[in-house]
Amino acid sequence: MPSPHSPVSGASPPPHTSAPPPPGAAEDSTPPAEPAVARTSRPAARRTRSRPRLRVPRGIRRASGPLGLLLLWFLAAATGVLPESVLASPIDVVRRGADLIGTGELPQAIAASGRRAALGFLIGAAVALTLSLTAGLFRLGEDVIDASMGMFRAIPWVGLIPLFIVWFGIDETPKIALVALGVTYPLYFNIYGGIRSADAQLIEAGRMVGLGRIGLIRYVILPSALPGALVGLRYALSTAWLALVFAEQVNADAGIGYLMSNAQQYFQTDVIVLCLAVYAVLGLLCDFAVRLLSRRLLDWRASFEGEGA
């Protein structure tokens, strides 16, 4: 007869449980061994970690294009591929520029051209702002003005030079009028388009919070039209210098175009290239100023700035 403490045959033995450590015994602080896969994968992760790429500043990248063209021009002139009778070398252009600066002819020409461009731009901007606000804010103004502006825009403004000479003579007035006409169109259409592209839901929300007509124009419509107006300003400034190139070819006695006309008579390609370079630098300075103004005025608006480095 089995004893009461002996296991019954056929019954499974109780599961084995480890006895708890004695109270005074120190616990084993050794961490458990990591799996072999985890130990072998860490060096591979370190090896495949990508190294940081060398990023070239954007200013250097933007200057690489003009500097590359200048280098090609210099090499073509130095090797004789580009004869001096066709186009002077960059070194000759720089030397002639230094001579004209020393005699004072180039600073006086830049001052005269800058005065014409500034006066023509102010007149054209005032006309464009008045017409665009009238056509953009009022339906009657749109019906009267917009169709006429679209019609006049199709007329090449350079072709109006003979008519301006008949109307205003051969003094400074036709030159300033041609610059003003060239400035008016890009400013008008960009401001007008910016006003008419204002979000109708924002306008309705402004009315719901109690804004009147003046408040809607000030706080909703004009801020919505500001990006388009700044784009038009960039186009208008570049067009002002372009119009000045044509305007100063008409019986000018001072200015950058006057230097170009004299150089054309004596086949001085270095002076012609120098004057064109001055026009380009003045246009780039104006464009840079508008870019800075855009960053200051549009810092409240999140815009897409391109992808990549």
Secondary-structure map with pairings?
Elements: H1 36-47, H2 58-78, H3 90-103, H4 105-137, H5 139-153, H6 161-168, H7 173-196, H8 200-208, H9 213-247, H10 256-265, H11 269-297
Helix pairs in contact: 3-11, 4-5, 4-7, 4-9, 4-10, 6-7, 7-9, 8-9, 9-11, 10-11
> How many helices?
11
Q: What's the quaternary structure here?
A: single chain
Q: Give the N-to-C terminal Cα separation.
A: 90 Å
**Would you report the number of β strands?**
0
- Tell me the β content: under 5%
Shape: flat
Could you give a short description of this structure?
This protein is mostly helical. The chain has helices at residues 36-47, 58-78, 90-103, 105-137, 139-153, 161-168, 173-196, 200-208, 213-247, 256-265, 269-297.
Brief descriptors of the model:
mainly alpha, 11 helices, 0% strand, disordered N terminus
Structure description:
With 309 residues, the protein is mainly α. It has eleven helices and no strands. The chain has helices spanning 36-47, 58-78, 90-103, 105-137, 139-153, 161-168, 173-196, 200-208, 213-247, 256-265, 269-297. Helix 9 packs antiparallel against helix 11 (269-297). Residues 1-20, 24-29 and 36-41 have low confidence and may be disordered.
